Amino acid sequence: MTAPDGLPRHAEAQQFPTLDDVLQIGGILLTRLAERVGRTPFYAYERRHIASRVGLLRQVLPRGVQLHYAVKANPMPALVQLMAGLVDGFDVASGGELKVALDAGMAAERISFAGPGKRDAELRCAVAAGALLHLESESEMERLARIGSELGMTPRVAVRVNPDFELKLAGMKMGGGARPFGVDAARVPAMLRRLAQLELDFHGFHLFCGAQNLSAAALCEAQRLSVELALRLADQARVPMRMLNIGGGFGVPYFPGERALALDAVADGLAQSLDLLRRGSPDTELILELGRYLVAEGGIYVCRVLERKRSHGQTFLITDGGLHHHLAASGNFGQVIRKNYPVAIGNRMQGAALETVSVVGPLCTPLDLLADRMELPRAEVGDLVVVFQSGAYGLTASPTAFLSHPLPLEVLV
Ligand SMILES: *Cc1c(COP(=O)(O)O)cnc(C)c1O
C-alpha cells in the first residue's frame, strides 16, 4: 500500500526527526518562531502534521471505522478545535474536558465520557449536554439513573468492560486482571439486566486495554478479542449493540531502537475484526479512540539554555524548562527505566562540534533531567533546546505548580 503524496510511507514513517525538521515548524523557522512567541519555554504544535496524521489513518483504516480523539492527550483548546474538524468524535475523561470538547464545536452526541470517578456534577453536565456516558461501575449506573430522572432526561450510556484478557506489550496496561477501570466482564450480564430496568438508553460497549503499544500483532489480537467479547456479552444479555468502542493504544516511538507502528498490519487486522463484528452484529458502529498517535509527533517543547556548568568532568546545560512543564520527557510519567526523549539544539546547524552533555531544568531536584549524557552540538547560553515527540501528555500531564515557575506558552502553528 502506498501513502498519499507528501506523507511518509508507513514502514519508515516517523523515524526521529532530522535537524532540518527541527529548524522549521508549521513552515516557520524555529528561531523566528521563538522570537514571535516572545519567551521561552513554549510548546509548539503543527497543524499540518496533525492533519496529515489523521489523513494517513483515514487512508489506511478500513472504511466504516469511526475515528475518535482522546482529548486528554492534548486538551489545548485551539488544537481540540482543529481536531473537531478532522475526526468523527471525542472521548473525554472529566467535566473540564467535556467543556473543552463542546466549546470546540463537537456535537454532544459524538462525545463520550469515560473515567472511573465521575462526580454527580460531571454526570449532570454530561446528561444535560447529551453526551454518551461510559459506565465504569454498577453504582455509577444507579447514580446516573437517579440524575436522569431528576433532569427528566434519559441518559445515553455504554458499559465500559474490564476485559478478561490483557493487551500484550503495552507501555501502560489498562485492562485485564484487577483494575479500577470498567466493570469486570463476568459481572456485565447481570449489570445489563439491571440496566434494562432503569431509564437509561443503552448504546453498547467500551473496551480500553492499554496504551503506547508499538506491536501491530498485539494490537490486532486485542482488537479481535475485544470484538469477540463484546459479541458474547451482547448475545448473552440479548441487547442490541449499536456501538462498540475498542479503544486504541497505538504507540509512537520515543526512544532509540523503537520502531514506528506498522500501520498497514494494524489496518489489516482491524479489517478482519470489523468483518467479525459485521457477521455477528451487522449494524454495530466500530469506534477507535486515539490520543497520543494523533498528536505526539506533531509537537515540540522548546526551552533556552541559561547556564553551562561543569561538575566532576561532566557538562550540564541548565535550561529554563524542565519536568514542571514536561514530566514525561524527564522520565517520570510512568517510565520504568529512564531513557532520553529525542532532543536537539534547535538553532545549531548540523556539522557543529559535538559534545556529551546533560540537559537539566531549573528545579532543585535531580529528577529534573531532560537529557542524560547525550551527544549534542555544543550549545551556548541563549541557545534553544528542543524536545521532540512532545505533542501528547506534555503540559497537562506535568506538575506545573512545583517550584512556582511561570507556565510555558502553547502555540498551534
Ligand atoms: C488515555 C485514554 C486514551 C488515549 O490513549 P493514547 O495512548 O493517548 O492513545 C483512550 N481511551 C481511554 C479510555 C483513555 O483513558
From TrEMBL:
Gene3D superfamilies: Alanine racemase, Lyase, Ornithine Decarboxylase, Chain A, domain 1. PANTHER family: DIAMINOPIMELATE DECARBOXYLASE (PTHR43727), GROUP IV DECARBOXYLASE (PTHR43727:SF2). InterPro entries: Ala_racemase/Decarboxylase_C, DCO2ase_PEP1, De-COase2_CS, De-COase2_N, Orn/DAP/Arg_de-COase, PLP-binding_barrel. It comes from the Bacteria. This is Diaminopimelate decarboxylase. Its cofactor is pyridoxal 5'-phosphate. The lineage of its organism: Bacteria, Pseudomonadati, Pseudomonadota, Betaproteobacteria, Burkholderiales. Keywords: Lyase, Pyridoxal phosphate. The keyword Lyase applies. One of its GO terms (molecular function) is diaminopimelate decarboxylase activity.
